[in-house]
Amino acid sequence: MSQPETITYNSIDRTQLLRDRARQVGLLSLRQICQQAGVSERQLRYLRRGQCDRLRVETLQRLARVLEIPTTDLLAEFASGRESASEPAVLQEPDRVSRPEPNVADMQRECQILQQQLLRQHAELQKNFQRTSLHLLEPWLRQWPSAIAGVQRNPELPAARLLPLTAPIDNLLRSWEVESIAAVGSELPYDPQWHQLLEGTAAPGDRVRVRYAGYRWGDKLLFRAQVGPVD
């Protein structure tokens, strides 16, 4: 009785094996394999030559899906020098450059530096926000204390009902370390550093009356209190 013919494949060229696998899934040419798997002819040539270590894992997985076999079987059949799946191929990915493991102490120092930079940036952004907000509030800051003084002199004015509504603004200013230089209507010695003379003349130390409020922002002058000579 004659023995069935055994087909053997060249140990270097896997082209015929690849064609046989392709025909089993209805692909009639190598170009169709490339199109279905989304690989280049060069990448397919590596597979035909058994150079699976020249291919990325993702490329091998796409080829295995198109040929409808597990990736391990693909490696067992096509990897050079591999005759069975029990000897898995060691894949190399030449496009990825190995890098030394980072030093933990260096990473901790860099993290601390970044945290300090973020804290400084946060503080600076907060100051910029406050500076812009105070600039926008300047008309209210100047006029509102004068309105309060008028209402306090005549509590029967309807505006007296509005005074409690200003408490949130006062709280906001206090949280920003903004404080009035002097109360509207108060008399005090003229100090050009803190006072702006609206009319007439006054020498430092002369008695003046505050007409519009001025403010400090922490240890800085925000704007001077506007004053006039005492009659």
Automatic annotation (TrEMBL):
- Coiled coil (residue ranges): none
Specify the superkingdom.
Bacteria
GO molecular function terms listed in the Swiss-Prot or TrEMBL record: DNA binding
Which part of the chain is the HTH cro/C1-type domain? 28-74
SUPFAM superfamilies (alphabetical)? lambda repressor-like DNA-binding domains (SSF47413)
UniProt cross-references to SMART domains, sorted A to Z: HTH_XRE
Name the record gives this protein: HTH cro/C1-type domain-containing protein
Q: Report the source organism.
A: Rubidibacter lacunae KORDI 51-2
What broad taxonomic lineage does this protein's source fall under?
Bacteria, Bacillati, Cyanobacteriota, Cyanophyceae, Oscillatoriophycideae
